[in-house]
Amino acid sequence: MKKIVSLIILAVLFSTSLPAHALYTELGLSYGRKTTTFDENNSFDSESITGSLSLYFLERLALELSYTDARGLREEKASSSDAQRTTKQNSQIMGADLILVFADKKSLFQPYIKGGGAQIKRYQEVKIQGQDTYTLEPETATVPSYGAGLKIQMTETFGIKLSYDVWKTPIGGGMQTDDSSIRAGITWVL
After folding, report:
1. Concatenated DSSP letters for the chain?
2. d(CA 108, CA 147)
3. What is the Cα–Cα distance from 182 to 92, expressed in whole angstroms?
4. How far apart are CA 26 and CA 173, in angstroms?
5. Which residues have CB under 8 Å from 74's CB, separation 6+?
6. Chain segment 134-173, per-residue pLDDT in tens
């Protein structure tokens, strides 16, 4: 959390010391959803929503601050005589990334790459039919993140944004795994 606050302060300092014509702000909103059904007893449903604020400076560089709320529901049953197992997962991800855009802000297609860090808070609840419910809540972790995307600038202020984002999520014992997300959303330049 301290790193994210430090990055916000750094962004404010940059924005006050550079010429005003080189600065602009962009708000973004994106949504992702996936449903998978194996059979009548086994399914998985997940969705995520992300809000972002990007502070652009020097035309092609930006500091993006984002918040993602992701939820998943898995229902499993190995056979019709087994107890139903229902798993709910929630994740909140606060990110701060430096973005490098490979086109100017008036271009129709604006590909970009990004890298930075994210703070991940996770929660899982598992309920087995006829048994107790138990929860897992791993420690909040600060991890590296990176990604790539494409913004399609439809008008001077409105665009469509497609992105692929990756977080190095800890899984215990000092090990990490890549968690990823493919998103589609919209952006507004203020």
Report:
1. -HHHHHHHHHHHHHHHHS-GGG-EEEEEEEEEEEEEEEETTEEEEEEEEEEEEEEEETTTEEEEEEEEEEEEEEEE-SSTTSPPEEEEEEEEEEEEEEEEESS-TT-SEEEEEEEEEEEEEEEEEEEETTS-EEEE-PPPEEEEEEEEEEEEE-SSSEEEEEEEEEEEEEEETTEEEEEEEEEEEEEEE-
2. 20
3. 16
4. 39
5. 43, 44, 45, 85, 86, 87, 89
6. 998 888 889 999 999 999 999 999 999 999 999 888 777 7
Dihedral sign for Cα 183, 145, 26, 140, please.
Answer: positive
More confident residue, 154 or 13: 154
Model confidence over 87-128: pLDDT tens digits?
999 999 999 999 999 998 889 999 999 999 999 999 999 999
Position of tokens 């855009």?
101
What is residue 1's predicted lDDT score, i.e. its pLDDT?
Answer: 55
Alpha carbon distance 159, 152 (integer Å): 5
CA 130 to chain CA centroid, Å, is 35
* 34-60 pLDDT per residue, tens: 889 888 889 999 999 999 999 998 889
- On whether the CB atoms of residues 145 and 152 are closer than 8 A, the answer is no
64 DSSP β-pair partners: 54, 97
